[in-house]
């Protein structure tokens, strides 16, 4: 690890080991189990350089390079900390070598991202408009939601169900699975590849 990459790596370790992650809940989505304990454990993988963190113009995870790329060196708000949880969730399933398509992988990550944001205390949970979202202004100056927003809208709902579930491992319902996958398919970044297999291959 170059000295340059230490800043995003330490920032990621700090998020994965924070008290918000410790409050996250287990859930299954199409047979794949999200584990907050595993997520926190990835901090060790960063310390020993199995998992790397670097910066790029867009945030993404590379299973080939076992690297989380962030579009900031350190998070400035809960939304950016939740983005780290999203990318680290991809690493969780890569390191287990789980076979899944892009729609499932992104669904798991967006739900985890929304769950972290809900637990962060940075959002008014009584106001349905106050959530992770993706929107813009039209020519009249009115706000409108982008196609990117469906993943946050649905992920925010599912995260609420998980947190209210009161069970050890919450199983996301078949209906919610279908709707979450559709939300990913509608996202411009995943329109063409949502049915492709991920290249998750373990620590290699
Ligand atoms: Zn993703």
Description:
- The protein is of the alpha/beta class and 204 residues long.
- The chain has one domain.
- The chain is 45% helix and 13% strand.
- Strands 2-1-8 form a 3-stranded mixed β-sheet. Strands 3-5-4 form a 3-stranded mixed β-sheet.
- Helix 1 runs antiparallel to helix 3 (36-47), helix 4 crosses helix 5 (102-119) and helix 5 (102-119) crosses helix 6 (149-164).
- The longest helix has 18 residues, at 78-95.
- It is globular, with a radius of gyration of 16 Å.
- It starts with 5 loop residues before the first helix and ends in an 18-residue tail after the last helix.
- Zinc ion binds next to helix 4 and helix 5.
The tally of beta strands, per DSSP, is 8
Determine the N-to-C terminus distance: 16 Å
Helical region count? Answer: 7
Are any ligands bound, and if so which?
Answer: zinc ion
Strand content: 5-15%
Average predicted local confidence, pLDDT: 96
Query: Could you estimate the helical fraction of the residues in percent?
Result: 40-55%
